[in-house]
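Troubleshooting log. The previous structure file for this entry was overwritten by mistake, so regenerating from the original sequence record. Sequence copied from the archived sheet and checked twice against the printout by T.R.
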Amino acid sequence: MKKTLSNKKAAAGCIAFCCIIAFTLGGGTAFAGEGNAPSSQRMADYANVAYADQSSSQVLDIYLPEGEGPFPVITVVHGGGFAFGSQTMDIIRPVIEAGVERGYAVVSVDYRKSGEAVFPAALADVKAAVRFIRANAGEYGFDSGHIAVWGESAGAYLAVMTALTPDVEELDGDVTTNAGYASSVNAFVDFYGPVEFYAMDEEYAALGNKGVRFASDDSFESRFLGQNIGKDKEFTYKTYWETYSDQFTDTDTGLAAWIQAGDADQNVPFTESVNLAERLGSLLKEERIEFGIIEGAAHEDKLFYTEENLDDVFEFLADTMEN
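Regenerated output below.
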């Protein structure tokens, strides 16, 4: 696993987990999670494009850089506890802007929320959006051979699962649109995502936080699953990537992964990201996994979206998606 320090000016004293050097950026305030993009920001070249037909939420916005293409693609998946938000949320705007400026086509995806349809609906939607990109590459100038999926919070979970279960048909759910195209990607970016729902209460307790109960009927994760995540361990683990690792083929091992969390996260235990990075070593090449902790960063913290941090992510994607 590669060891890098995201903030080049950071002093010594960063924390290390399992021989992984943590990113040190200091404290900061968090973004508001909801809201539409201000009118002063970049407008989509194509807005509310349907990629499937089960729901009005199955839409995406397309942002294209200057030039003729074909352009490598960043597929952006917003968070919101699987329960709210849209493809225009403020928090993902820095990724959209930075991607377009660097010559990527950026496809910002919405999906069905837990109040409308439970697992695997939202995951099936993101997979369908990737298939849409491939099916319509010629029309929009997409480079279908270079696709990354980038998510934050709940969207990071959907990004991780999209990337790590490319051939698991049962996770395509009820969406058959463009079924002849692959939903595989070259890379994923995970900002502070939940990963292993069943373990989250135990992980928070180990961190000294005993006030959070993910295994409750009304938690975001339980509503996403359609029942309390603590009720049936085997059923809950249908949402976990390692359950399907035997279907991850040799051709998928070129996948690249950027995983980043904050150690002051009060919404998702940062050890979810630690464990993901460690366990991916059984599937992916070590040099294609980048992991780091931002010290003092909370959930949705603006420190993930600084110019410096985004530069590092895009440098990683440029290096790994081309090799």
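The longest strand covers residues 142-152. Archived copy saved in two places this time.
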